Structures are given as C-alpha cells and as structure tokens.
Amino acid sequence: MTAPSRLDRAVGAVLGSAAGDALGAPYEFGPAGQLSARGEEMRGGGGWDPGEATDDTQMAVLIAESLLEHDGLELPDVFARFQRWAAGHPKDIGLQTEDVLTSGEPWDLAAALHFQINARAAGNGSLMRAATPAVYFAAAGREATMDAARRIAALTHGDPAAWEGTAILHELVRVALDGADPLTALPAALDAVHPDHRERYGRVLAPDWHPGLATEFNGAVWPCLGSAVWALRTTTGFAEAVRAAVDLGGDTDTVAAVTGALAGARYGQGAVPAPWTAALHVPLPGFGERVLDADDLRALAQRLAVAGSR
Ligand SMILES: [Mg+2]
C-alpha cells in the first residue's frame, strides 16, 4: 500500500473528525463500552439520525467556509457565523459556547467576560472543531498554526488552557499532514505551549498516561486531548482508534471527533470506513436547509488544503 498523499491526509482529517463525531453522538454522556456492546455502527440513537454529525462538525464547517470566503482568518466573521448558527437552535451546543454566543457582547470580549465571571472555561469545545482550520493553516508552519488555533479558540473559550490544548491539536495534525508520526512531534509541540500550561499537558500526553488517570470528566480539554492521543497511540488504524475513543464513554462525540481528526490525518481518507461515510451528513442550523454529505466534506477539505498552501 502506498502512503497517503498530503491531500488524502487533509481529507482524512476533516472526514475522519466528522465520522468520529457521528459515530460517537448516540452515546454522549453514557458509560464506557457502549459502542462495542451494541455491535452496530452508525445506526443513530439518542436523538441523532444514523450518520448525523453534531455541533463539533457543524462549527468546523462554519470556520472552514469563513476561511475560504475571506481568504484567511477573519475572526469577527467566524464569530458572526457561530452566532447565526447558535440562533438556529442546533440540537446540541456546549453550555459555555451558547452563553458566550448569546451574551450580546462583541466578538473580542464575549468569551473573556464569560471567563472573568465563571472562572472555569476549559471545556473541549474549541478542540472539537479544529480539523478544518488545522488543515488550512498547516502549510504556514508551526507558529502560525498554533497562533491561529489560539485565536479561534478564544472566540468562545476565555480560558488559555483551552487555547493551548487546541494549539497542540492543530500542531499534531500539521505534522501528520507532512507524513510524520504526530506522536513523535509531542515534545516539540509541548515546547511551543505557554509555560503556564506545559506541565499539565505534558502529563496527559505522556506515553504512560491513559484515560483511567484523568482527573476531570473528558468534556474538559486536558483529558479530551489526552484520550485522543492515547487512542492513537494504543491502536494501529483509523477505525480502531475512533472505536476506542467512543468506547471510553462520556463526551463520546467530541473525544471521537478529536481522535478522528488525528487518526484521519495520520492514516488518510482511505482508512475511514466506507460504511461510516455513506450515511454521514452535517446539518447547518441557521443556514437554511443546507446539509453537507461526505463528498461535500471531501471537497471542503481539499479546498482548505489548497487555499491554505497558497
Ligand atoms: Mg457534539
């Protein structure tokens, strides 16, 4: 088998994240092992149709379309798209994300003000939507990739811990698109993390860490990223990694979306099982009746990869 091309990996990241999101959606907030116990995949449940992607992928698509239409990162536009989407009553939206997007505060203050009042804002909500900007910014190199990640995260998450985790994920996807093993890039990625946050990420990304050691629910940014990296490290293929992520229980759609982005970039789009992508679809509340399918996601990922490398 020949190694996947850079474009195959870019599509793998975007499609893989969406597939993980949809695979995990029916089991959100449930116990561990539900996917294996059910023995059927992409059959829906918990209010989700088979193959239906949730807020993770919906927000990733919104970021992608803003990047492409503006030929770069136009933060007020991304925020406005998020607001329009939130007003369209998505089936699922993170509590904190909803608070920030509906606060009526301007794009550059809303998340910071929320963090000032609530102090805790390190949910995984900025991690879950990272596949598309990670593909777009990859060609710009590590520093630009991590900087963009932080700025997009800061639109909804005022806690710098969320920015740093999102920056690490972007960087790991960037390395994988280059054809390298993202696990070997962890030390360099950690070096580029803000010193205040380096130790804590170092702990959850260490080779001997496993989800059983998590000190928070995996809806928080640290165990979510740690679990995704663990899933990649302890498996040998895309489907196996994403299944392991869903079977952890908890915030199954998001842990699987993050795992899917990493594993998709690592193994390429050909590794994403066809039965998972056949029913895959992404509604976009607030944007009319638009629903993207797997081919739309493939095309979107290709446009991101090409536009980002110009
Ligand atoms: Mg979700």
Automatic annotation (TrEMBL):
It holds the Pfam family ADP_ribosyl_GH. Keywords: Hydrolase. It comes from the Bacteria. The keyword Hydrolase applies. Coiled coil: none annotated. Belongs to the ADP-ribosylglycohydrolase family. This is ADP-ribosylglycohydrolase family protein. It comes from Streptomyces yangpuensis.
